[in-house]
Amino acid sequence: MSVTIIDKPKIEIAPDLLNELMTKSEEMGQVVLHFLYHSGMWGSRIRIWPTTYLYDQHSAHRSELVHIEEISMFPTWTDIQPYQNHYFSLIFSGLPKSCVIFDFMEECSNQGNEFQVKNILRNNSDIYFFKMS
Questions:
Q1: Contacts of 94 (CB under 8 A, 6+ apart)
Q2: Which residue among 6, 61, 95, 106 is least crowded, i.e. fewest CB within 10 A of its CB?
Q3: Can you give the three-state secondary structure of 80-130, one letter per residue?
Q4: pLDDT tens across 3-54, in order?
Q5: Cβ–Cβ under 8 Å, residues 116 and 55
Q6: What mean pLDDT is predicted for residues 59-81?
């Protein structure tokens, strides 16, 4: 699976939802990851495991997954039709203020194709955008 970090996304998110997520991130110290997932010619099935975390690369801190939007939690699958874009979001507990780089890791035993993005440079908003195919 190929993952690209999007610095300046062209994804349109409803302004009221984006404002709400930004406010939550600032008030509660949450980290928000938005994904654009593109399925291939045969379609796809995706889901997220509850054992998905953000890891600060310079400490032992691990941020917990606290909320999901538009993706199923294990064991349920989200079906995506062939050649379709699917948008989903994950919200995690906050990272330490000292964190400058972190990894997003889905930990699932014997499953393969787990979601992973390493070496994410932290930004001031703690809101990130990714494209997956």
A1: 28, 29, 30, 31, 63, 126
A2: 6
A3: ECCCCEEEEEEEECCCCCCCCEEEEEECCCCCCCCCEEEEEECCCCCEEEE
A4: 777 666 555 666 776 666 665 544 458 999 999 999 999 999 999 999 999 9
A5: no
A6: 96
Distance of CA 38 to the CA centre of its chain: 14
Instruction: Record the pTM.
Output: 0.79
Alpha carbons 49 and 47: distance in angstroms, whole number = 7
Which two structure tokens, joined as six digits, stand for 7? Answer: 């610095």
Residue located via tokens 């195919």: 133
First and final C-alpha spacing in the chain: 6
CA distance 67 to 85: 21
Cβ pair 91, 68 in contact under 8 A: yes
